[in-house]
Amino acid sequence: MLDSPIDIEKLKKLQFKVMQDVAAAAVVPLMRIGDQLGLFKKLSELGEVSSQKFSEEAEVDERYLREWLHAISAAGFVSYNKEDKTFSLSPEQAAVFAQEEGPANMIGAYDVLTGAVHNEKDVLKAFKTGEGVPYEDACPICFQGTARFFKPSYQANLIKKWLPLIEGFEEKMKSGGSFADIGCGHGLSTLMIADAFPSGKVAGFDIHGPSIDQAKNLAKDANLLDQIEYGVADAKSYEGSYDYIAFFDCLHDMGDPVGAAKYAFDHLNEGGSVILIEPTASDIPEDNFNIFGQMYYSFSTMGCIPTSKSQEVGLSLGAQAGPSRLINVLNEAGFKNCKVVKKNASNMVLEARR
Ligand SMILES: C[S@@+](CC[C@H](N)C(=O)[O-])C[C@H]1O[C@@H](n2cnc3c(N)ncnc32)[C@H](O)[C@@H]1O
After folding, report:
1. Which atom of ligand 1 is nearest to the CA of 146?
2. Which of 36, 252, 263, 307 could form a disulfide with 317 if both were Cys (CB 3.0 to 4.6 A apart)?
3. Residue ranges of domains in the chain, CATH in brackets
4. Which segments in the chain show pLDDT lower than 70?
């Protein structure tokens, strides 16, 4: 192999891809700094502004800020007016970086990336031992990052586009139906469902106590705490039976997804269904060798596989399990009617009925 001649064009292409990725990774800490100091939000409020004026308004050092602005402008995330040497955010840049509550926001992704770098030491050790790393041992930035990363997609899709595809869902939930959000994390999806279906009975469960504490805080802030039952529980130990049992971006993280789906099978009311949201993937790994696959297999290596391996069974489906593998898991749990009801570039929605 070493003796094979190097194809210069292929080499250059590879090096260019590495440079693109290095440049993308280089802004990660800058994006976190900008987010934590509220620089994107401040810039969207100020409009076109010099670095001097911006630094005064944001109460940060001008020299650091100017370098940050140049880096972020080079990335295309801030706009620069060369005539009067001012910086601003276009409406699109503001939507993606400054509007925390908007459905286009993507800044939370940088929390996930930062968290993954912090997890390197534990995951490196686990490569050697084959053991898992429990979810609670991950860098805490991962927990808020996960919630922020998924939120815009849930905001844009969950209530308006995805859940209406589940037959009978809206009618049932409007007339007092019950819904359990398993592995709910910070419970943003749980909140959206409680808000959309005020007469529904909504519950959120997660194995991670601090995430449930945060879910309760957020529900309190949204005046929805009375409507939601939150509990710290494993996917094989929560109480009650429900019309809908959901696993949103979490079944593949579980050590025993078959056991979790079986438990859901036994805790579904007659006519109910299990709803999965999972990252979009093909069943064939090489079909996932694209930018989504690069991102999800990487997140999976640093978070999903270590979490699953830390639990009983340790099946380690991974974040790119693909629809056939997921449907096999559901079939093994006893579900006979399983289908993908929606697929977009980043998410798949599956429904399983008895
Ligand atoms: C990637 S996060 C997704 C959280 C949330 N559903 C969302 O979409 O933002 C995976 C969640 O699954 C939870 N989890 C992992 N294993 C679990 C298990 N066996 N039982 C219950 N929850 C579990 C984790 O604590 C974590 O909150």
Report:
1. 9
2. 252
3. 8-97 (1.10.10.10), 109-353 (3.40.50.150)
4. 1-2
